[in-house]
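Example record

Each entry pairs one chain with its bound ligand, adenosine monophosphate.
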Amino acid sequence: MHRLAVGIDLGTTNSLVAARCGAGVETLPDEKGDHLLPSVVHYSAAEPALVGSEAKARLIDDSANTVSSVKRFLGKSLTELRRQNRHLPYEFDAARGDTAPAIVTAAGVKDPVQISADILRKLAERAEHCLKGSLEGAVITVPAYFNDAQRQQTRDAAQLAGLKVLRLLNEPTAAAVAYGLDSNDQGKVIVFDLGGGTFDVSLLSLQKGVFEVLATGGDTNLGGDDFDHILADWMRTQLSPGTEPVAVFNARLLQIANAAKHQLSSEDEVELSYGEWSACLNREKFATLASELISRTINTCRRVLRDASLSVEDVDNIVLVGGSTRMPVIREAIAEFFAKAPLSDIDPDKVVAIGAGIQADVLIGNKSADNFLLLDVNPLSLGIETMGELVEKIIPRNTTIPIVKAQEFTTFKDGQTVMSLHVVQGERELVADCRSLARFELRDIPAMVAGAAKIRVSFQVDADGLLSVTAEELSTGKKSEIQVKPSYGLDSSVISEMLQASHDNAQVDMEVRSIREAQLEARQLIDAISSARDVDGALLSENESDRIGNVIRKLETAMTEAGSNQIHALTEELNRVSGNFAAQRMDLHIREALRGESIGNVEET
Ligand code: AMP
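Structure tokens for the complex follow.
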């Protein structure tokens, strides 16, 4: 019995659904024969929400109730939305605050999850109609760089639409599956995905039919829409708005810009007109206007290669994904940079959905999963705060996921029964320079001397990139766990900034780390000697006591002013000058212990 499962590409501009039909996996059309469903939803008071081209038709006359590119809103705060998207024509619900933006529509307040669910529901209905049965599950694709909050909201939307999510799959991995690249023996593939609103570059390595993502890069705020905006801005500089409302004017300019951009993919020049105004735009002029956007895409490719320590000659194939890769200016830039023409055999709008459909078919059990194995990577290192506000990395960046990794930690103070854990993300050495993901506590640790307790902290990143952190005290099995859904704002531009900062600061960071470590070591020695002096100070001659006091003072000063080498040197000197004192104390304590034992022996006999 063939079980029904679909792959869904929930795109910024358009969405698609694909499923197995006979021998192959294909995208499914609506009753009019259209495969692409515009990711646009229109809300009105009287009727159910319109989704797709009917909604798109209302973009101009009812922009306040017509939501497009909602994928850009997932997991974002209102401040970020406003910063990232110019000319947003919506009224946001003030009662929701900054962190959970929702749009006030004629049909009530709608948040990004509900709006995305409306799109998914429409696709699910289409699939059930085409396949004549009920769906048992779906694989939904997300950009490789989606953070946990964005992935979670995608899952929530699917659930709200009544879909069982078999897996969230990274878009580039889906594209590689669609191309059947798993049947190749080996090779390196760049997946270049320029959609309507997002840009992803992934470097995949194929080994005996297994995909591994070696590195990823991108920008969740770069896409075809930006080319439209560039053109619209260019037109705006030459036009004066007529009598129409600004929102209508802006929407109309964008529509003209988009149409011109499409035309330029098949023709050398286009005629633009608005009212009385008209102008001619050729490909060359378009390339000049968009040159900044184009070089951003190529720079990202360069960075991804550098991350994997590979060069352009190592790349065997470039796969094109996303409608915007139809632009000749983009194809030419790619061909020039990689010195080879990109692959584009499969419709770049459908390739991701088809790959997701193939995987859905495998996951629901219609096909052996041995055929391929999908591996993705986590984009930034995950770690934990340790003493001295330093970061201990547990899962380094670009580690293949799913993964579980554990490390043992211990208590710092005698009798410590609570351990605070601070989960951070990023490449820098100091906590302050990384992104804080979560804090939690492990309680009821049995009281022991410092350093005796064994606490295992494990990090688990599942196939969807969601992180669980568990801390366990090993002698009692006492556990504490947290699922991390980081708040907002980790998109690819933030990731690239964080990576850039870690590159720029590598030298300084290393010195800061070694200073912090040297300071900690010095502090522990000073504290140990001070408490020993409190107890056994009488063992010290005045001379010895002065010498130790002297070095301690020098070390204290060095700890606030000097570099790690000097702190290390003085710590060693302190060890040396206090060596005799330590030996005397040890003798004393051994003698006391022996005396205690002989008394015990006497009593026993
Ligand atoms: P997506 O549906 O996310 O892959 O993105 C669609 C994007 O591709 C939109 O920005 C479209 O304007 C753009 N696009 C589609 N076809 C063409 C074309 N022939 N030339 C230029 N851009 C295109």
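The radius of gyration is 31 Å.
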